[in-house]
Specification:
With 273 residues, this protein is an alpha/beta fold. The chain folds into two domains: 62 residues; 194 residues, Vaccinia Virus protein VP39 (Rossmann fold). Helix content is 40%, strand content 16%. The strands form two sheets. The chain has a seven-stranded mixed sheet, covered by helices on one side. Helix 5 runs parallel beside helix 6. The radius of gyration is 20 Å and the shape is globular.
Length: 273
């Protein structure tokens, strides 16, 4: 195996046999070469050293055995920013970038207060702070190990976000905006990908109730006793009808749903009027 092109071809062949994402070779080479993802293709004919090949083969085999590539590398990208991740936090999804974009689209004021509930790696809070540097942004999580990752990312990105250990909004008295991508998968959901199930923290994925609504119910309940202007949520694409019933239970009459880029119901905005 003389160059990176040969590694690429070998990886793609093995990925097909293992029914894994064949494009992951780009992530591995970008990490090894220390270059942007979209520049890897320009370096395929460079010679590969023995130690680089050995390291790539180790990572490849672990990936083919079922480990998440983001955890193997120790980072991923979200909203153009590099985030450290480990198995204590959920891997940020591209679809959640649409939630961030909706918040930014609606709120162009220079100064607002915002809370990211269930912050995990801090990806939502920090992405928003990168675009609205004068906003006062806090992130809450009930798990201290997740908060350690979020704080690390804040330092790494040099962004001033406060992260607090809190049961959803328990530590927060008031805010202008709430945003949350909470756990919303029912325990027996048959559509959960096996790689997700085997790698990512269950507490960041699953709820205890059979409909996956426990997190929303708790947040809606807490919002009733706290002043806010807008609240934004991500949810499972089959949960819209159940969420509408829950909104009615808490007497929220002014709200809006939005589909994701694939046309699936995915986001909710509540107006506190």
């Amino acid at each position: 195996m003389a160059n990176y092109r040969a590694f690429k071809e070998h990886f793609i062949e093995k990925a097909k046999l293992c029914k894994k994402d064949a494009n992951v070779w780009k992530l591995l080479l970008a990490d090894t070469l220390g270059c942007p993802y979209d520049k890897v293709i320009l370096k395929l004919d460079q010679q590969i050293s023995e130690w680089q090949l050995e390291w790539l083969e180790i990572l490849s085999e672990r990936y083919f055995q079922g480990e998440a590539i983001q955890y193997l590398l120790g980072y991923c990208y979200f909203y153009g920013l590099k985030f450290h991740v480990n198995p204590k936090v959920l891997i940020p999804r591209f679809v959640t970038e649409e939630l961030v974009a909706w918040v930014l689209e609606d709120n162009k004021e220079d100064r607002l207060s915002l809370v990211d509930v269930g912050t995990g790696s801090g990806n939502i809070a920090l992405a928003l702070k990168s675009q609205r540097p004068n906003w006062e942004i806090k992130g809450t999580d009930v798990y201290s190990e997740a908060l350690e990752v979020a704080k690390l990312n804040a330092r790494f990105l040099s962004l001033d976000v406060t992260f607090l250990e809190s049961d959803f909004l328990s530590a927060i008295a008031k805010m202008d905006i709430v945003v949350s991508n909470p756990p919303y998968i029912a325990p027996n959901d048959p559509e959960v990908d096996l790689e997700v199930l085997n790698n990512e923290p269950r507490q960041a994925l699953f709820t205890e109730d059979e409909k996956g609504l426990a997190s929303y119910e708790r947040i809606f309940q807490q919002l009733k006793s706290r002043p806010f202007k807008l609240a934004y949520f991500e949810f499972g694409y089959r949960q819209k009808a159940d969420l509408e019933q829950l909104l009615a239970t808490f007497s929220y009459k002014h709200y809006e749903f939005r589909k994701d880029i694939t046309g699936k119901d995915r986001f909710l905005k509540i107006y506190n009027t």
